[in-house]
Amino acid sequence: MPAHETQMSGGFAPGRGLPRALLFALVCSTVLAGEIRHAAAFEIFGIKLWGSSKDEDADIVDPLRYSVTINAPDADKDLVKTLENASALKNDEDHPVSGSLGLMAKARADREQLVAALYADARYEGVVTITIDGKSIDELPPDAEFKGPQPVPVVVTVAPGAKFTLGNIRLKGDAAGLAAADFGLIAGGDAGSGAVLKAEALIVRALKEEGRPLAKVTDREIVAEHASSTLDVTLTVAAGPVAGYGDTTVEGTEKVDRDFTEYMTGLKRGQQYSPQEIDDARDRLLGLEVFNSVTIKEGDSLDASGNIPIGVQVSERKPRFFGVGGTFSNTEGLGLEGYWGHRNLFGQAEKLRIDGSISGIGSNSLSALNYNAGVMFEKPGVLGPTSKFFTGIKTVFEHPDAYDHFSVKGDVGVSYDLDKQQRVSAEFDLDYSRITDAFGKHTYLIASVPLQYVYDNRDNKLNPTRGFRFLAYAEPSYDILNGATFLKLKGEGYTYQSLDTASRFVLAERATLGSIVGTGLQNVPADRRFYSGGGGSVRGYSYQGIGPKDIDGQPIGGLSFFETSVEMRIGVTDTIGIVPFVDAGTVSTKSFPDFSDVKVGAGVGLRYITPFGPLRIDAAVPLNRDPGDPHFGIYAGIGQAF
After folding, report:
1. What's the predicted TM-score (pTM) here?
2. Which is a Gene Ontology cellular component entry for this protein (predicted)?
3. Of 105, 83, 113, 89, which Cα lies nearest the Cα of 19?
4. For 562, phi and psi rounded to 5 degrees?
């Protein structure tokens, strides 16, 4: 091989061979109660908000403290940040290691991690040197002891070298007919190790999508041309035969029925293999909420019938769960809620949930607090793996400004996932209610058939940064006691656009439109009319405070409404964000919204990102307030506003 070339077969390691593959994962968990461990440390729900705890280091044998300096004079700011994030020495600097041997082991592992970080940035000539107490780790004897004062100085010096680009690219074997550019392998393009490995995975995935479960890379030849700072890549791929699914075996089930678990994968024997169906099966099993983890592996070879065996490994969650939560705003008061549930009532992921809430604390008198209680039951897989049967009963006793309301409502229905993004549902509801509003006291018995379609391709349900969600809702209703018939229609659209690659700036928008047709306002129960205003609506205004009012200034609701919001979600750090926003809404007594009377609120919010969703505090003011509207609103809760 010429002196100016380095050849890598099966990996990325100029000159010295392949470093061990490195994989880092952060596993977050939440518990129901936090604790204060130390005066300088505070944790809530298992998440450290600030400070550190000395208890974390109490079990370390022969603790040795060190300090780290990373010198990379030729690296840009982004690469320096990448190196610091990759360095376990730097990230763990506040915690001692176990003696001199522990420090040397950590330093040697750190060098591999830093070299891997250089390769990921296409720096194949990079050199990482680490010294401990002034001596190179390559020169230190295995039994070296650092007896001097602590912390022991550790210096990491990185010479990143030139950044490589892709040179000649060849796909061989069964991938010979594929265009390398379709997978991101372009001459002059990104030569980082991650980019090349990602391209390999995409090539294999493309062949697997043809129904070939045994597709794999059989040879990888990487040549680094140091003179031109280019990386030549040759990949040989074997596609393997087209195959169907063989037997599906399930391991790890204890209280969940094993046959039911196999059924819910939806992988039918003999049906042509698809990697997307494997992904969907994993997501569907996780969606049952009875498993902590789900791993689906394809066999290494085909069975006697030419099919690929499928192995499913699961670990179960505790079946019972409970929790508490709360919201607060200066216009709506304090709200508290609690729930208890069982995830696996009869062994096939049947869910039973009992919940209750109370709201209006501090805003309403004790006799006018709002109460909700309900029982819900779900059974998945009734009409196929993507379906779910549900039924429940709910009691409501509430006193918003617009009306006083008591009701008992029962429902039964089914939902069906058309695919990973689309869901349809239909149900039958029967609702008995007694309502006092501006039109007097009324008793209703409403039979209705709610129909719903949802399309949702958001990247994250708790904190989306890109994607779209659309909901279409229709509910034909008949009042058995009073003879009124009406149709309630509603459409909602949400969009999320990441304005930068790191998703530090996310533009979020929503629009909602609703209409009731078929009867007059007074014939529609007050709780089924449209309202606007408040924390989940137009911030800055009181709850249900937008729209037509009676002679006492109390809202009466409407037959139509329109709302829209725009937020710019700005990530200041990985956990802290600020959110300037504008909301607008209108409510009309006609069946089509009156856009001549739109109320607008604006403000700014603070977000603290947690594994169970953002903690949210919003402050807003009404921009065109009427007499009786609040001068400002403050809202707190869990989750984004939309």
Report:
1. 0.74
2. outer membrane
3. 113
4. -145, 135
Please give the DSSP secondary-structure letter assigned to residue 139: T
What domains are there in the chain, each with its CATH number? Answer: 63-159 (3.10.20), 165-238 (3.10.20.310), 244-316 (3.10.20.310), 443-638 (2.40.160.50)
Angle between helices 193-208 and 99-120 (to 10 degrees): 70
Q: Is 262 helix (H, G, I), strand (E, B) or coil?
A: helix
Buried b (16+ CB within 10 A) or exposed e, 374-384: bebbbbbbeee
Q: Cβ(636)–Cβ(329) under 8 Å?
A: yes
Closest to 517 in 3D by CA, of 472, 470, 477: 477
What's the confidence (pLDDT) of residue 222? 93
Cis peptide bond prior to 151, omega within 30° of 0: yes
Greatest CA span in the chain, whole angstroms? 94
Q: Is residue 172 within 8 Å of 126, Cβ to Cβ?
A: no
Average pLDDT in the 128-145 region? 93
Torsion, Cα of 260, 262, 263, 268 (10° steps): -160
Nearest CA to 491 out of 509, 457, 514, 517 is that of 514
**Sequence-ordered alpha helix ranges (H) in 121-192:** none
What single DSSP character describes residue 203?
H
Place of tokens 């295995």: 142
- Which pLDDT tens digit goes with each residue over 379-414? 999 999 999 999 999 999 998 878 899 999 999 999
DSSP 72-128: -TTS-HHHHHHHHHH-HHHHTTTS-EEHHHHHHHHHHHHHHHHHHHHHHTT-TT-EE
Please tell me the distance from the alpha carbon of residue 77 to that of residue 121, in angstroms, as a whole number.
Answer: 13
Burial classification of residue 476, based on how many CB atoms lie within 10 Å of its CB (0-12 exposed, 13-18 middle, 19 or more buried) = middle
Q: Which residues contact 247 (CB under 8 A, 6 or more apart)?
A: 269, 303, 309, 310
Contact present, 377 and 384 (Cβ < 8 Å): no
Q: Give the burial string for 592-610 (b: 16+ CB within 10 Å, else e).
A: ebbeeebbbbbbebbbebb
